[in-house]
Amino acid sequence: EVQLVESGGGLVQPGGSLRLSCVVSGFTFSSFWMSWVRQAPGKGLEWVANINQDGSEKNYVDSVKGRFTISRDSAKNSLFLQMNSLRAEDTAVYYCARGGASSGFHAYWGQGTLVTVSS
Amino acid sequence: DIQMTQSPSSLSASVGDRVTITCRASQSISSYLNWYQQKPGKAPKLLIIAASSLQSGVPSRFSGSGSGTDFTLTISSLQPEDFATYYCQQTYSAPLTFGPGTKVDL
């Protein structure tokens, strides 16, 4: 059974940092692109970043470039999102999602972790 | 960046109705278009891949069509469990943008 489990969310002050983790199981982690997708309260889905199988290619939405860093550790079957210089508008549920062998669709999602940026 | 729009933003329907949702891309994305369903408090669920391929396990009342810039998701006979919000997403090029969503309610 494919599982993705996020952790690391919480309350952080504006300008602060947080590191999200996503541990996966049930599939060969090193064979798939991985993404982070977020959803602000009451709003739609926003794709945040993705990373290819060996971590050599990363893409970001403009609003997080220079502040967020996506990474992965195949030995730990884990995906990460380092979030720095957080802003109120980063408040959202953050989902990790499995991509395809060549980026593509997201067939599997975690349950999400809530990040709240507030003083 | 490729912008995605959806229409309508919301619709009211009844069980048994045929429902059609439209998604438009700001430039041609070939068939790199996927559809998701999301219910409150839950993660999105993949319905349609590459514009028209039904994801495994998804009921056949869901179908997708289109290519280039214009796409359609159709629910042939709405069931009670289909009341949800539907999103399209292009995976032609990064950033992999989502449409703003279409809420289907009673």
What does this structure look like?
The complex is a heterodimer of chains A (119) and B (106). In chain A, 0% of the residues lie in helices and 55% in strands. Chain A has no helices and 11 strands. In chain A, strands 2, 4, 5, 6, 9, 10 and 11 form a 7-stranded mixed sheet that branches. Chain A has a 4-stranded antiparallel sheet with strand order 1-3-8-7, with no helix packed on it. The termini of chain A are far apart. Chain B has 106 residues and is mainly β. Chain B has strands at residues 4-7, 10-12, 19-25, 33-38, 45-49, 53-54, 62-67, 70-75, 85-90, 102-105. In chain B, a hairpin with a 6-residue loop joins strand 4 (33-38) and strand 5. Chain B is globular. Classes of the chains: A mainly beta (119), B mainly beta (106).
Main β-sheet of chain A: number of strands, strand sense, barrel status?
7 strands, mixed
Give start-end ranges of low-pLDDT stretches of chain B: none
Molecular shape of chain B: globular
Distance between the termini of chain B: 35 Å
Name the structural class of chain A. Answer: mainly beta
Number of helices of chain A: 0
Poorly predicted segments of chain A: none
Give the integer mean of the pLDDT values of chain B: 96
- SS field, number of helical segments of chain B: 0
Which sequence of strands runs across the widest sheet of chain B?
A: 2-10-9-4-5-6
From the helix content, strand content and strand pairing of chain B, which structural class follows? mainly beta
Strand content of chain A: over 45%
End-to-end Cα distance of chain A, whole Å, is 40 Å
Report Rg of chain A. 13 Å
Could you tell me the radius of gyration of chain B in angstroms? 13 Å
Strand content of chain B: over 45%
Oligomer: heterodimer
Helix-strand string of chain A: EEEEEEEEEEE
What would the keywords be for this entry?
heterodimer; A: 119 residues; mainly beta; 7-stranded mixed beta sheet; 4-stranded antiparallel beta sheet; 0% helix; 55% strand; globular; B: 106 residues
